[in-house]
Amino acid sequence: MVRNVMRNKSLYIYLSVTALVLVFFGVFLWVSNDSEANSKEVELTDSDANNPDLIVNGIHVRTGLVEGEGLTEVITNCTTCHSSKLIIQNRMGTEQWNATIRWMQETQGLWDLGENQDIIVDYLTTNYPTFKKGRRAALTDIEWYPLDSK
Ligand code: HEC
């Protein structure tokens, strides 16, 4: 009688553990399936590969630039001389961008952008905003003192 109860008990434990394992496995499958669906690569066709304007997940594939108002102007005016990476890597405010553009115009042969300059700078500051507190702000008002070297 006692033995029987013991046996039932271990059977019970065995079944519970099995059920738990199955539940965990199910949840795992469900989660991994879900993230797979989310990160699913977009399948590109041959015509996509030849499409210079293709945008996938908000990114202009050919240049890597973020989709947004002014993208066309940026592609047309800013990716002929150098890679778009140079643009993506640089985070600047409006004044800095205008200064950089002026610098390229004065020294690198960039043409007058006309009305497109505002559109381009708006695109850049909106889609590539300056990093918030990338590092400690530069020290100001420092009283430097000469080191004694005897
Ligand atoms: C006529 C050619 C030309 C065009 C068009 C051009 N650039 Fe440049 N740009 C240059 C050159 C040359 C450099 C210097 C590259 C280097 O240092 O390797 C440069 C550098 C830069 C830099 C790096 C500046 C730095 O301080 O390091 C940025 C950012 C940049 N360009 C953005 C732009 C943007 C935005 C546009 C569109 C408005 C643009 N460029 C259009 C020629 C051009």
Features:
150 residues, mainly alpha, Cytochrome Bc1 Complex, Chain D, domain 2, 3 strands, 4% strand
Note down, in words, how this protein is organized:
- This protein has helices at 2-38, 46-49, 71-78, 84-89, 94-107, 116-127, and strands at 55-56, 59-60, 65-66.
- With 150 residues, it is mainly alpha-helical.
- A three-stranded antiparallel beta sheet has the order 1-2-3.
- Strand 1 and strand 2 form a beta hairpin.
- The longest helix has 37 residues, at 2-38.
- The protein is flat, with a radius of gyration of 30 Å.
- Heme C (HEC) binds next to helix 3, helix 4 and helix 5.
CATH first level of the largest domain: Mainly Alpha
Strands of the biggest beta sheet: in what spatial order?
A: 1-2-3
What binds here, in terms of ligands, is: heme C
Report the count of strand segments.
3
Helix content: 40-55%
User: What is the helix tally?
Assistant: 6
Spell out the helices and strands N to C: HHEEEHHHH
**In whole angstroms, how far apart are the ends?**
97 Å
Largest sheet: 3 strands, antiparallel
Supply the CATH architecture of the largest domain: Orthogonal Bundle
What would the CATH topology of the largest domain be?
A: Cytochrome Bc1 Complex, Chain D, domain 2
Stretches with pLDDT under 50, minimum 5 residues? none
Sum up the overall morphology in one term: flat
Mean pLDDT: 87
- Structural class given helices, strands, pairing? mainly alpha
Q: Approximately how much beta-strand content do the residues carry?
A: under 5%
Number of domains: 2
Radius of gyration (CA) equals 30 Å
* CATH homologous superfamily designation of the largest domain: Cytochrome c-like domain
